[in-house]
Design brief:
It is built from nine helices and 22 strands. By secondary structure, it is α+β, with helices and mostly antiparallel strands. Strand 6 and strand 7 form a beta hairpin. It binds zinc ion (2 copies).
Length: 407
């Protein structure tokens, strides 16, 4: 787990954040702030004992999360945890190795002295180079989906002296550079980009101090019973509903409920779903009008379980009537953003399709568009070390949830 050094914006105390932390509580002044960024987080490693040379910060993409690949027959899952040279400069190491785990990172801000090199490739370019260990030699398809728990950029310092590049941390010579390259590096005056903000975690509706875990991407207000996710403008309300508690359930797990328009197959209503998946059910007339909903975990969990839980929640039964509100009781934190969950729908569909052959043909032309979304809290019975949901024939090991927090 990476750590980020950060000064408390309120009291100035030196504090430390986890890489995935979004809700910051200052241990000194107790201020509670939610951290947001425009696009992705940018960190840098501090140069050691800086000399007179100006530090040149070179970018590395940092990608961490779940990885799904579909080869036309089945969906495979894995975890990605890589850093990769984003400057496309040959003399730089291709990854940061263990450096970012052993050294403390800091947030990039416009005051940082030095020049910042722009990335020359996108996270997608990096992912396409990742070997898929599961794919057969000649797969029918090679479709990949990455669900980023963390997509960020880390700047590592170098400096250039007498046409040679030096590591800004070890202060060792890395390479002698062609004149054009050293000239371009020295001449670069790129300033740090990106804005991040710390916003007070107060409910925009009633001003109450909201609840959340350090890794929560949605905060809840216990006073006016509302839920809020971060947006570029600050907080944005998230519609919530829940399955009313019929017995003593102990824990509510959050799911993203999505209605999607899919180009390529007809899956608008539950009647469509019965036809598409050959469910052994007689179609009731009202099902033609009942929008088909996807339910995917709104919390981090290992990708194989993610796929299984999504399948059971979405395809096991028609969604019962829900109450529009935030439930009382124990709520598991929302740690997986809606946008990321939406990206997985095509993989859940491929995994669940009855006709594998048809799916392989249809898959490349499938296009998903979000129609409607919200959070649904589903009550789970806690039995020993398991969380159980009989109506979905689902049991989740409690430690899978804890584990999921550290993906
Ligand atoms: Zn403070
Ligand atoms: Zn409120």
């Amino acid at each position: 787990m990476w750590r980020i050094e950060n000064q408390c914006p309120q009291c100035g105390a030196d504090t430390c954040l986890e890489e995935t932390q979004r809700l910051f509580t200052c241990p000194f002044c107790r201020v509670k702030l939610f951290i947001t960024v425009d696009d992705y987080f940018r960190y840098f490693l501090s140069p050691t004992a800086p000399g007179t040379e100006e530090a040149i910060f070179v970018p590395y993409w940092r990608l961490k999360g779940m990885f799904f690949s579909y080869d036309g027959a089945s969906v495979h899952t894995g975890l990605v945890d890589v850093s990769h040279n984003a400057a496309m400069l040959d003399f730089l190491p291709s990854s940061l190795g263990l450096r970012s785990q052993t050294l403390r990172l800091r947030f990039v801000s416009p005051e940082i002295r030095g020049s910042f090199i722009e990335p020359a490739c996108s996270p997608g370019d990096i992912l396409s180079t990742i070997e898929d260990p599961f794919n057969p030699e000649t797969p029918l398809l090679s479709e990949k989906t990455f669900v980023g728990e963390s997509v960020s950029m880390i700047f590592s310092p170098i400096y250039v002296k007498d046409r040679a590049a030096y590591d800004g941390i070890l202060r060792e010579k890395m390479a002698v550079l062609p004149e054009a390259v050293s000239g371009a590096l020295i001449g670069n005056r790129g300033k740090a980009k990106g804005t991040m903000s710390f916003i007070p975690s107060l409910c925009p509706d009633c001003g109450w101090d909201m609840d959340g875990d350090p890794e929560s991407v949605v905060l809840t207000c216990g006073n006016c019973r509302s839920a809020w996710g971060a947006s570029r403008k600050g907080f944005e309300k998230v519609p919530c509903s829940f399955l009313p508690l019929e017995e003593d359930s102990l824990l509510y797990l959050p799911f993203w409920k999505m209605e999607a328009e899919i180009k390529g197959i007809r899956l608008d209503s539950y009647a469509d779903a019965v036809r598409f998946f050959n469910w052994p059910k007689a179609i009731k007339r009202e099902w033609e009008e009942l929008p088909f909903c996807w339910l995917t975990p709104a919390f981090k969990i290992n990708p194989e379980l993610y796929l299984r839980i999504s399948q059971r929640m979405t395809f096991q039964a028609i969604i019962p009537s829900l109450k529009s509100d935030l439930p009382g009781g124990s709520l598991y934190p929302v740690t997986l953003p809606l946008k990321e969950s939406f990206e997985t729908l095509r993989m859940i569909l491929a995994h669940s399709a009855v006709s594998k052959k048809d799916m392989a043909v249809t898959f490349p032309s499938l296009r998903f568009a979000m129609k409607k979304s919200g959070l649904v809290y589903w009550p789970f019975h806690v039995s020993g070390t398991e969380l159980i949901r009989p109506d979905r024939q689902l049991s989740i090991q409690a430690n899978a949830l804890k584990w999921g927090k550290n993906i």
